[in-house]
Amino acid sequence: MNNEDIAQLYSKYVMNTYTHTPLSLAKGKGSRVWDLQHNEYLDFFPGWGVSVLGHCPSRVVAGIKSQSKKIIHVSNNYYNHLQAKLAQKLVKISQLDAKVFFCNSGAEANEGAFKLARLYGKGSRYKIITMNNSFHGRTLAALSATGQEKYKSGFEPLLEGFIHVAFNNLKDIKDKIDSQTVAVMLELVQGEGGINVAESDYVKKLRSLCDENNILLIIDEVQTGIGRTGKWFSYQNYGIEPDIITLAKGIAGGLPMGAVLAKNSVADLIKPGMHASTFGGSPLVSKAALAVIDTIMKNNLLKQTFEKGEYLKTKLLGLKSNYSIIKEVRGLGLMLGMELDSKGKEIFQLCLQNRLLVNLTQGNILRIMPAMNVTYKEIDKAVAVLDRVFRDILK
Ligand SMILES: Cc1ncc(COP(=O)(O)O)c(C=O)c1O
Q1: Model confidence over 26-65: pLDDT tens digits?
Q2: Residue partners of 380: CB distance under 8 A and separation at least 6
Q3: How many CA atoms does the CB half-sphere of 65 hold within 13 Å?
Q4: Distance 265 CA to ligand 1 centre (A)
Q5: Closest ligand 1 atom to Cα of 187
Q6: Ligand 1 nearest atom to the CA of residue 221, by list position
Q7: Does any ligand 1 atom lie closer than 6 A to the CB of residue 203?
Q8: Counting C-beta atoms within 10 Å of the first and last residue's C-beta, which end of the chain has fewer, N or C?
Q9: Mutation test of ligand 1: which of 17, 50, 135, 187 has the most ligand atoms closer than 8 Å to its C-beta?
Q10: 339 lines ligand 1 (CB under 6 A)
């Protein structure tokens, strides 16, 4: 089968929801992937932020293999010791006095957070303030929360009660809080929005503002969570405690899993029958997630993510000083963005031609999120490709 055959099958049988890069990825190991024709690529955006340990991490592979021979799925009406152990680990690394609900995706985790917030609001408070440029998923409530109009067109009317404000602007939140506001929700590093980092002072003041008004602070950690920013969760860079966090992407090393962690004062409002997810926290996926956490701990990958993030950022800043087309380099840990003046699409295409996979968001921001176990050699190689691409584009 070649790429054209595959594209034909897609056009006939798969709904046309994604813009496809014409590559059929067939194999991966760490930060390297191979297409069906055995061409090798350096993957600096593995799995759209999912593959935090790169492709096919060995402990995760071993965990899936062994667990698949024991039991793959059980109903959530039975106990599942792997889910229980995973919840305990997540609560421990979150350093929150919390409980966990397991589901299958980021959007589903956010739906769970909205339902918890509504319970907390006891019917009289239901409004949730979210940020312009945010992204929270494609289900109707998550889409309503998302602060980008381009995703909503054609799907209106959306759910009422989501109020959008400017990012990093406390006054805008203060102005929009009213007696029906129950929560503020944000990503501390906006991913799809263009790697916009929340300011430290803003986040601390936002925490106080929420406390003063008995408003829940929900952090969407779907993209930032599980070590991506050099801490287990991005809020740990800010020295604050959220009331609810939502997780997905990296949590199970590539298997689908989402999770909501809520402080006990909120989590304990849920009673049997109020919320559920058939596949949530299955033995197979929980085993994979335990292996992800184990790998990060045993290989000291949080520290490495911080150090490699600094190293990569310094190199990207070096490129910025050479090429005026790069307006800004920003991000936390290994979640980095390069804002370009122009030619975003051409640069993305040239990277691809040079066998480097990155992401382009908002049309002009190169999103660079390599795996936490990327090597320094791979970082140097990717930076050399970017250097060549910028040189060629400006010829
Ligand atoms: C911050 C954030 N929240 C939620 C989502 C939605 O996650 P999913 O696609 O798993 O539903 C995403 C996906 O990119 C995301 O980046």
Answers
A1: 999 999 999 999 999 999 999 999 999 999 999 999 999 9
A2: 315
A3: 7
A4: 26
A5: 1
A6: 1
A7: no
A8: C
A9: 135
A10: no
Contact 105, 138 (CB under 8 A): no
pLDDT in tens, 314-343: 999 999 999 999 999 999 999 999 999 999
State the average pLDDT for the chain: 97
Atom of ligand 1 nearest to the CA of 249: 10
Does the CB atom of residue 128 touch ligand 1 within 6 A?
A: no
Pairwise CA distance, residues 287 & 64, whole Å: 7
Q: Are 270 and 101 in contact (CB under 8 A)?
A: yes
Question: How much distance in Å is there from the Cα of 28 to the middle of ligand 1?
Answer: 23
Condensed to tens digits (0 to 9), the pLDDT of residues 270-291 reads: 999 999 999 999 999 999 999 9
| Structural domains present in the chain | 3-56+300-393 (3.90.1150.10), 71-298 (3.40.640.10)
How far apart (Å, rounded) are the C-alpha atoms in residues 328 and 319? 10
- pLDDT confidence tier of residue 395, bands split at 50, 70 and 90: confident
User: Which of 45, 108, 136 to mutate for ligand 1's pocket (most ligand atoms within 8 Å of CB)?
Assistant: 136
What count of residues does the chain have? 395
Determine the residue of 222, 226, 233, 362 to mutate for testing ligand 1's pocket, defined as the one with the most ligand atoms within 8 A of the Cβ atom: 222
Residue 394 — very low, low, confident or very high, per pLDDT cuts 50/70/90?
A: confident
**Gap from CA of 105 to ligand 1 centroid (Å):** 7
Is residue 256's pLDDT more than 90? yes
Q: Report the percent of the chain where pLDDT is more than 90.
A: 98
Segment holding 286, helix H or strand E: helix 283-298
Q: Which atom of ligand 1 is nearest to the CA of 248?
A: 10
Largest CA distance in the chain: 64
Residue 98 near residue 263 (C-beta atoms within 8 A): yes
pLDDT value of position 327? 98
